[in-house]
Amino acid sequence: MLKKYKIAFDIWALFLFLLIMLPNFIWLAIPAPNDILRVESATGTIDAITAVCQVLMLACLCFLRNEEGQRLAASPLL
């Protein structure tokens, strides 16, 4: 299954990730007055595991490329 993949940096994957994360960056720069997400978490271990999994997902998104995958092309459905 992994034979079709190679390790290479994909700038479009990074661009899509940053585009998806744009609302989070805005929230970070201009937080809400009563931000319930900034209080001390009761599940610190689960939060740490979640953060590690998010970093691994970003690394896989940007560095694993399918050699047989086709690029997106403009079509009426896209």
Explain what this protein looks like in three dimensions.
- This protein is mainly α.
- It has a domain at 2-29 and 44-65.
- Helices cover 50% and strands 8% of the residues.
- The chain has helices spanning 11-29, 44-63, and strands at 5-7, 64-66.
- It has a two-stranded antiparallel ribbon with strand order 1-2.
- The longest helix has 20 residues, at 44-63.
- The protein is flat.
- The mean pLDDT is 80.
Q: What's the short version?
A:
The protein is mainly alpha-helical. The chain is built from 2 helices and 2 strands, in the order βααβ.
Low-confidence stretches: none
Task: Give me the Rg, rounded.
Answer: 17 Å
Q: In this structure, how is the largest beta sheet organized?
A: 2 strands, antiparallel
As a percent range, the share of strand residues is 5-15%
General form: flat
Q: Based on helices, strands and strand pairing, what is the structural class? A: mainly alpha
Q: N- to C-terminal separation?
A: 28 Å
Listing every helix as H and every strand as E from the N terminus to the C terminus, the arrangement reads: EHHE
Please tally the β strands and state the result.
2
DSSP helix count?
A: 2
Adjacency order of strands in the biggest sheet: 1-2
Helix fraction? 40-55%
Mean pLDDT: 80
